[in-house]
Amino acid sequence: MLDAADLAAVRLTLELATVVTLLLLALGTPLAWWLARTRSPLRHGVGAVVALPLVLPPTVIGFYLLLLLGPNGPAGKFTEALGIGLLPFSFGGLVLASVCYSLPFVVQPLQNAFDAIGPRPLEVAATLRASPWDTFWSVVVPLARPGFLSGAVLGFAHTVGEFGVVLMIGGNIPDKTRVVSVQIYDHVEALEYAQAHWLAGGMLVFSFVVLLALYTLYPQAVRGRR
Amino acid sequence: MEQRLRARLRIDRGAFRLDVDLDLPQRGITALFGHSGSGKTTVLRAIAGLERAPGGYVALGDDVWQDDARGVFKPVHWRALGYVFQEASLFPHLSVRGNLEFGRKRVPAQARRFALEPVADLLGIGALLDRRPDGLSGGERQRVAIARALLASPRLLLMDEPLAALDLKRKREILPYLERMHEELALPILYVSHAPDEVARLADHLVLLDDGKVVASGPLTETLARIDLPPSFADDAGVVLDTMLAGHEEDALSRLEFAGGALLVGRRREPIGTHLRCRIHARDVSLVLARPEQTSIVNRLPAVVTAVAATDTPGHVLVQLRIGASPLLARITERSRRELGIEPGLPLWAQIKGVALLS
C-alpha cells in the first residue's frame, strides 16, 4: 500500500498539476489567440518556440532553466533582487519549469480551436453590437470549449507525467519537489517493486482514464492537435 | 431634412481597385447590383466597417461612421446597422431565441426599435424559437439571421446576397418575407445582389457597379431603362413597370394599368387595385412601324423611339422607347433597325411577347 511519503508525493503532484494548468490556461489563451489571429511575421518564430518542448529532451529544458534561474543566471539574479530567492529546488521552480514544458500541450489545442472558429462569427457578433472583449466571452469561449477542455486535460496530464525536467530543476526534496514520477524512480532504485507498482499502476490507470474520456467526449479536439 | 447615406470609399488591392462615391436616399430598398468581382460586397463591408477603406468617409444622416480626414472611425459594434451575410452564420451554441436575443440585449432598452415577437411573426419563425440552428432548413436559418439583424435595432440594414446560397425553392420562400419587411418596416435596406430578378422584384433604387466603379445610380425604373450602360449589362436588359390590377376580361385575362398604357396578362387572383410589379425583357419586345393587326401577340402599344445604342452582341442594338410616361427597351438586330429606319423621334408600335410578374 501507499505510505505517507507516497501520499505526500501524490498530493504534491496534484497541487503542482492544478497550479500549472490554471497558469497555462491564463497564459496560453491570449498566446493561442494571438497565434491564431495575427498576421505578424513573428508568429512563425513564436509558434516554433512554443513547440520546442515537444521535440527537446526534458533534460535540455531543465538544464537551461537551471542555468537561467540559478544564482549566476539573469533570471536568478532578478528573483533574488525581488526578494523571492532562488527558484531551483523549490515548488515555485517546479511550477515555472512545468509551465514551460507543458505549454504546447495547452496552446496548440486552443490555437486549433480558435482557428476553426474563423472570422465570420466574430464579424457577426460585431454587427450585433458586441465589443471584441464581449465577443471573446460570449462567442469564442463557448465555441472553443473542446479546445479549452482538451488543452486543460492534456496540460494537467502532461504535468503529472513529467520526470526529466523535475529532476533537473526540482531535485528530490520530500514535500517540496518530490512528485510521483520521482518517487517511483526512488522505489525502483531501492528495489521496492510493490511500492512502485502501486504508484506506477495508479498513474497508468489515471492517464488511460483521462485520455479515454477525452477521446470519447471530444474526438475532434484531439485529432485536431498538430 | 431627408436622411441620406453617404459613402466615399477607395480601396486599392493591385489588380482590384474600388472607387465609389455613393449618395443614397435612406428609404426603401437600394440594390447594389453588379457582376461577381465588381466590388459590391467590398462596398457593403466597408460601409459596415468590417473592411477598412483608408481615407474614406461614411455617414448615415448626421451620424458619421468614418471620416479619416478627421480621424474618425467608429468600430463596427458602435454602428447602428444590421448585417445579413450570404450564409446565415447563426451562432451554433445558442438556440434560435438566443441568437435573436444576442443583438437585442446589447441595445439599451430605450433605443430598441422592434420587439422580438412581432419580428419573429413577420419572418414566420415564431414556432422555431426553442430549436437549435443545426436543426433548421437553409431558408429558416436565413430568416432567423434576418430577424436577428432587425432586433439589433439598426438604422440601416445591409444585406449581402442573402439568397445566393439558397436553392430556387428556398429563395421563393424568403422573397415574400423581404417584401413584407419592405412594406411594414420603415427601415432603409442596402441589398447586394447579382441576380437581376431579385433586384427587379425588390429594389426601389438601383446602383450599378462595374469593375469597382459606379456606372449608374438612380430610381429603379429609370436606371434599368438606360441604354448608356456598359454593354455587359445589355444581355439582361429590360424594364420594370409598376402597374395596378385594373380589371378582369371575360376570356381569363387581367388588365394591368401603368403610366402610359395597359397590359394584358393571364388571370390574376389578387383583388382589383393591387399594385403589381412586372418586368419586360428587351428581347421580348419587337417593333412594328404600322399598327399590328394580324398578330397573335395581345400586348401592342404605341411608342416613340428615344435612343438607340449598341450591345455586346455583334449585329444587335438596344432601342429605348417611351410609352406615355413609362420607358421600354427593345433588343433588335441592326439590320431591322436599318430597314425600318429606326431613329430617335420615330413613332411606332411595340409588340410585347412576355410579361414577367414579379410578385
Can I get a quick summary?
With 226 residues, chain A is mostly helical. Chain A has helices at residues 4-37, 42-55, 58-69, 74-81, 91-117, 120-127, 132-143, 145-161, 164-169, 180-189, 193-217, 219-223. Chain B has eight helices and 21 strands.
Your description of this structure?
- With 226 residues, chain A is mainly alpha-helical.
- Chain A has a single domain, classed as MetI-like fold (Orthogonal Bundle).
- Helix content of chain A is 79%, strand content 0%.
- Chain A has twelve helices and no strands.
- In chain A, helix 1 crosses helix 8.
- Chain A is globular and about 65 Å long.
- The N and C termini of chain A lie far apart (40 Å).
- The model of chain A has no long low-confidence stretch (mean pLDDT 90).
- By secondary structure, chain B is α+β, with helices and mostly antiparallel strands.
- In chain B, a hairpin with a 2-residue loop joins strand 1 and strand 2.
- Chain B contains eight helices and 21 strands.
- The model of chain B has no long low-confidence stretch (mean pLDDT 91).
- Chain B has two domains: 223 residues, P-loop containing nucleotide triphosphate hydrolases (Rossmann fold, 3-Layer(aba) Sandwich), CATH 3.40.50.300; 92 residues, OB fold (Dihydrolipoamide Acetyltransferase, E2P).
- Helices cover 21% and strands 37% of the residues of chain B.
- The longest helix of chain B has 17 residues.
- The chains are: A mainly alpha (226), B alpha+beta (359).
Number of strands of chain B: 21
Number of helices of chain A: 12
Order of helices and strands of chain B: EEEHEEEEHHHEHEHEEHEEEEEEEEHEE
Please identify which CATH superfamily of the largest domain in chain B we are dealing with. P-loop containing nucleotide triphosphate hydrolases
CATH topology of chain A: MetI-like fold
Judged by helices, strands and strand pairing, the structural class of chain B is alpha+beta
Please, what is the average pLDDT of chain A? Answer: 90
Report Rg of chain A.
Answer: 20 Å
Distance between the termini of chain B: 32 Å
> In which order are the strands of the major sheet of chain B placed?
7-8-9-3-10-11
Radius of gyration of chain B: 23 Å
Judging from the principal axes of the Cα atoms, what is the shape of chain B?
Answer: globular
Biggest sheet of chain B, in brief? 6 strands, mixed
For the termini of chain A, the CA-CA separation is 40 Å
Instruction: Determine the fraction of residues in helical runs of chain B and give it as a percent range.
Output: 10-25%
